[in-house]
Design goal:
Length: 172
């Protein structure tokens, strides 16, 4: 009797494929850079389940991200793909990788860095935060609008170089 054997899927490879999908709103960073891929598993029937945590509840890109992940995994040979969105624990800007922060900065978006206008780490005391200018590095910046090009960013301006820039909102 000949027994058919099923190929064991390489979960690490599938995880890498899902993580390499670019963010649709900020295509210079991947889902791994943002830290929103929470896990990838393969069920006994071969279905690939991807768990994502959006950058915030109600993010308009969530459905696009899920479709992009499904498409990328199908292109990598996955059969049935199930993308599940989980909101707990809530995403935090602490999940953005150092590589992701560098990519954001190079793209002209100030990554969250916990910097206060007077320097030093963010504390539990509510203080007016500033964003470091991604172009010249100055902390002499001001928020122009709490809402930038996407809901997870705010619009800022640098008082030294005069350039406007988006700043990723700090979420903890």
């Amino acid at each position: 009797m000949v027994t058919a054997t099923r190929a064991v899927p390489d979960v690490a490879r599938l995880r890498a494929v899902a993580g390499s999908v670019p963010d649709p709103e900020i295509p210079v960073v991947t889902l791994d850079d943002l830290g929103i891929v929470r896990g990838v598993t393969v069920s006994d029937d071969g279905a690939v389940e991807v768990v994502l945590t959006p950058t915030y509840t109600g993010c308009p890109a969530t459905e696009v991200i899920a479709a992009d992940v499904e498409r990328a995994l199908a292109g990598a040979g996955a059969g049935r793909v199930v993308v599940r969105t989980v909101l707990a624990p809530a995403w935090t800007t602490d999940w953005i990788t150092e590589s992701g922060r560098a990519k954001l900065r190079a793209f002209g978006i100030a990554p969250p860095d916990g910097t206060r206008a007077v320097g030093g780490p963010v504390t539990a005391v509510p203080l007016a935060l500033t964003a470091r200018c991604p172009r010249c590095g100055s902390l002499r910046t001001r928020e122009i609008s709490r809402f930038g090009s996407t809901p997870c960013k705010a619009l800022w301006s640098c008082r030294d170089c005069g350039e406007p820039f988006d700043s990723f909102k700090v979420l903890r």
